[in-house]
Amino acid sequence: MDFVRCCFVLLLLFFVCVNAVSPPNFVLIFADDLGFGDLGCYGHPSSLTPNLDRLAAGGLRFTDFYSTSPVCSPSRASLLTGRYQTRSGIFPGVLYPGSVGGLPLNETTIAEVLKPLGYATAAVGKWHLGLGPNGTFLPTKQGFDEFLGIPYSHDMGPCHNLTCFPPDVKCFGSCDLGTVLVPLLHNHVIKEQPVNFLELEQTYSDFSTSFIAASAKKKQPFFLYYPSHHTHYPQYAGPGTAGKTSRGPFGDSLLEFDHTVGKLLASLEASGVINNTLVFFTSDNGPSLIRMSRGGNAGALRCGKGTTYEGGMREPAIAFWPGTIKPGVTRELASTLDILPTIARLAGARVPPVAIDGVDMIEILQNHGKSKREAMMFYPYDPSEKLGLFALRLGKYKAHFYTRGSTLSSSTPDFECSALSVLKVHDPPLLYDLEADPSEHYPLATGGETDIPALLERIKKVKEQFEASMVFGESQIGKGSDPRLEPCCSPQCTPKPSCCRC
Q1: What is the 3-state secondary structure (H, E, C) of 78-105?
Q2: 41 noted as active-site residue
Q3: Of 263, 397, 451, 476, which residue is least crowded by CB atoms under 10 Å?
Q4: Longest CA pairwise span in the chain (Å)
Q5: Does the annotation count 259 as an active-site position?
Q6: Is residue 200 part of a domain?
Q7: How many domains does the chain have?
Q8: pLDDT at 9
Q9: Is residue 177 packed enough to be buried (19+ CB in 10 Å), middle (13-18) or exposed (0-12)?
Q10: Per the residue annotation, which of 41, 44, 72, 171 is the catalytic one?
């Protein structure tokens, strides 16, 4: 009898201990227009990124990590849903202040995956997945408890107070005129219009660190999504970082972003949850090369933003989790699509019952093992069912079925990057070995070591199978724009948009 009682007590203690283990927390940091070669830990000689370098040194740095689009809104949709943007209809191009559409409410975001498990959720920064009538598409309608940020890109409004160096030297370039001044929203309420960019990063970091501390104090698991405005053009930096780097406005903007990363890490440490938190960092698309030195750097990769060359879609990425992820570098294939299924599995959450294009990265993260991802698909900023995929990566090989330059990459000496390089059809496709030639300069030809016909046949089958499974959603951006939907803190004022101030 004593033996039975003893076994029962041990079993009870086991279940108590198991249930006492807190679910992991998640901090997802998303840079804007940051190139593969922009960080110190990725080889840039003059960038000051000590906190991101610390993440890389103490975590797992990816060399072959991809976004799904070379522009903002589509890449953000696929990050949060684990689905290519063609499924959710976030194409062609990006959403604007008065856009009628947005990320459909029947799409399931990472936040909505975690909410049933009791997670606190917050989005802080650049949303860019729609505002819509009465805030229909804001984060608080997509699973987030709180939102503090700008609902679209910070250049979608007059550049009234973007400064590069103190006291008041304006950044070069222009922003969108004829639209409302850029607002700062808390949930659905406009807190500032125009937003004070020189204090914005401090506002964001204060809000984010308070969210972490409050959640930890309540012993509530949390998901913080921090999509930064940095380093999208035009760059800005507050007084703590303006003029502090040798890289100019871009470097100052990047340093301010890095400071926020440091504050997030410090808050995790102070709250005692850093060993139970996965911090994942990456970027939405490649650098805006048309801005030259103020637009970022793709390193050895070809072209940049707006193109389906490597520079437009291969991104820096770092996973950091002390005690769980061993430091190192992985050359395994992975994507922003894989973040949702990874988080879902780690949290013990259900994956949405829809077509998910991501695969979990658990084996890569915990064991530096092999990726479940066989291929990566490349859509242009304006995908169509008629043309389908522009490119496909299978293993170390990448096939281009179509190539085209972009205005956003027009400043480079490489003609194929510029807007003058019009759509070209490649049949057979241009084929590159990305391990030997990550710059995509030397197409493979028959007669070499690689069996080109057999490889192309494999690629063709993967492409056909994928495209047969792709169902294009209704284009949300194609629904057009209505100036009356632009956010205004004084809705009845005149004349608009200049009167929208508070």
Answers
A1: HHHHCCCHHHHCCCCCCCCCCECCCCCC
A2: no
A3: 451
A4: 86
A5: no
A6: yes
A7: 2
A8: 41
A9: exposed
A10: 72
